[in-house]
Prior knowledge:
39% of the residues lie in helices and 18% in strands. It is of the alpha+beta class and 349 residues long. The chain has 2 domains: 5-94; 113-346, Bira Bifunctional Protein, Domain 2 (BirA Bifunctional Protein, domain 2), CATH 3.30.930.10. The strands form 2 sheets. A 7-stranded mixed β-sheet has the order 1-4-5-9-8-7-6, sandwiched between helices. Strands 2-3 form a two-stranded antiparallel ribbon.
Amino acid sequence: MRATTEDLERLRQEALAGLAAVADEAALEEWRLQYLSRSRGRIEAAVGAIRSLPPAERRGYGQAVNALKREVTAAYEAKRDALARRRLEEAVTRGRVDVTLPGRRKRVGRLHPTTQTLRAIIAAFAELGFTVAEGPEVEWDSYNFTKLRIPPDHPARDMWDTFWIDLARDGERPMLLRTHTSPNQIRVMERQQPPVRVLVPGRCYRFEATDATHEWMLTQVEVLAVDEGITLADLKGTLDHFAKRLFGPERRIMMHHSYFPFVEPGVELAVDCFLCNGAGCRTCKGSGWIEIMGAGMVHPEVLAGVGYDPERYTGFAAGMGVERIAMLRHGIDDIREFYKNDPRFLEQF
């Protein structure tokens, strides 16, 4: 069948009607393939039909089909641009930001409450010239016990339930997980001569049942000062400064006698209850005082054991549990909360 200009008019009307019905870019692409594709488009087929016409008709038909192609192509480009603009407008509308709204709060991490408390403890003693020294968590029996005046047969070893490392030497197990940070007192004094003013923070481990006030792993801070002329008054003044820095400038302290093998005399330090101000409450068990640490004057035998002259040098030591200090500062009644990794608890600090 020979192509005519009437065929081109019908093709024009069909193409423009189909283009007008296009609603999205996928449908537009289908329309383009149907009408403008070089390989199978209907308009390209109409262009190819020129070769089948008699020479006298080719000129008029060719002008008509070229005009059709230009018109339909222009209509296609206009539709394409309109759909692109609509897509952009929809994207802008969906992602529109109301600049009058307050900004969204960013969730940031924070330090664990024991780390916060540990840093506060270190800062309080740093004001008095103390520096930080660290030691191994896997320790020798000699440092953890013997050099602190706790020989193998001493009943004081019952104060520390111990995790022993499965390493045997001469029928003995000489290695353990340290039960306190006091071993690093010895290590520090073996490395340097007085004056000594150090803090020893670190984790300690005890083989004991877990309950509201006991954990098998705890964080401790050891305090050690050795120099000529140090007295119990220096210990009291140092711990009074510490108590006021952590629990408030109005706090009072009390020391009463206690026993620790590596100090003589040994004391327990208590602060007046910061909840009832000494009147008596559940936190202080009605006494008006809260014990926070053990302390004392370094035993002369400990000083002599590291090569110090106990006739010339004296010193004091103190040790505290960081979790206990944090519990008292924040009113926490169960030590197990610190290591449950419960965000509802940790986000409060």
